[in-house]
Amino acid sequence: MEDSFSTAPSRRSLLLAGLIATAMTAAVLMILPDIDVPTTLGGNLRPVQITALTVTNSIIAYLVLLQFYADHKLSNGLLSVAFSYSALMSGYMLINLPRVFSTSGGFPPGSHMATWLWLARLGGTAFLILLAMLVLQRQQDRPLSKRVRFQALSLCVVAPLGLAWFAIAVLSRLVPDLNSLVKDNGDYSALTHSGIGAFLLASWFVALLSVLLVTRLRSAFHCWLALSGYSYLLYLIMACSSSIRYTVGWHASRFFELAAAGIMLGALLFEVLKLQTRLQHSYRQAYEASIHDSLTGLHSRRHFDAMLEMALQQQARHPAPLTLLMADIDFFKQYNDHFGHVEGDLCIQRIAACMAEQLRGGDTVARYGGEEFVAILQYCDQVQARQAAERFRAAVESLALPTPPGSLRPVVTVSVGLYCHPAGSPATAGWLVEQADRSLYAAKHAGRNRIGPPETSPTAA
């Protein structure tokens, strides 16, 4: 069965993704004329936005890492690193926001570290997505060999920590001072005109283009990854088009950033739900196949053994008669040799259907093996069992299935053995089958096409 990341997107999914992309584009076009209009929200929502971004990207990274653990495809491992890195960078920004976790210190808006964390998070995430697509293009998503799987999984867990540390502790000291790019009044036009905005736009454009060209949206996961990348691109367009913090454009751009993460998380959870549904369906199919005989549709021998044990346990708790019927097609070998295996299978199928029709709906009817059938009749005494067995024998005879020339009878018949186990008498499943088989042997020895004498041994051997 295909994994949830390789399933081709349905037309409905493609249509939904297209509608979302169209709606987001329309929203951007509507907001652009009023992009620098100030709002009264200020920065009060910033901690909530960063928290949501951190939590969402962390869950995405975890789900993608689980997929990498399952399919051992390096491109998925790199995508997990990308989202983990983004979550770590935004989480580090969250704990250093002024007046959030401490009353003093932190990174004020527009400071060198606040600007660098924003730049490093977006640029680094885009680079890692591009790297994942290059690996996918080169390796065609072939699974890693068993020898390097554990090392690769460990690296995918440790790499985001190392990259985040390198960006925060090392690169932040190497880049030029970014304090002058954002003024105290919230004007960050110098930041967008410095080339940083253009660099980030180009990074996410290339990342989005790589997803489209390499994957060609052949899987549902990559379809939603492309839409998430497009949402990030719109976020940067909005952020770079505005020049002052806490305006309509600034707050709207943060919505698109959250939408990018929300789209990926929603898509992944939906794919997990679909995978769970397919697994449940496959389990039901496998279970039904295990308890039913493929030729006749009756229960299998294994299921019969389990049901007989359960019937004995139920009889011990609620004393009542328990009857076992065992039937065999008379002279079936001659029939099969003369008419061939195809007609032999059809004969078995018709007699199996006849047995199921003549017995009660709650009785367990199974193919015991070859041309033998067996049935468990609970709460059925000896008189009722013989009546049911006779109905079945007569119904098979009335099918009028012709026998080979020179046969003892002109139509196919069955012999039936039965054993009625009285309530309150201990017995094992094997012993019950042996008693019914003795009755069947007696019916065959007496001339076939009849019901065998009831075996009434009082105790189990």
UniProtKB/TrEMBL annotation:
It catalyses: 2 GTP = 3',3'-c-di-GMP + 2 diphosphate. Pfam families: GGDEF, MASE4. Its EC number is 2.7.7.65. It comes from the Bacteria. Keywords: Membrane, Transmembrane, Transmembrane helix. GO terms for biological process: cell adhesion involved in single-species biofilm formation; negative regulation of bacterial-type flagellum-dependent cell motility. The chain crosses the membrane at residues 12-32, 52-70, 77-95, 115-136, 148-171, 191-214, 221-244, 256-275. GO terms for cellular component: plasma membrane. It is an enzyme of class 2 (transferase). GO terms for molecular function: diguanylate cyclase activity. The keyword Membrane applies. Residues 320-456 form the GGDEF domain. This is diguanylate cyclase. It comes from Pseudogulbenkiania subflava DSM 22618. The lineage of its organism: Bacteria, Pseudomonadati, Pseudomonadota, Betaproteobacteria, Neisseriales.
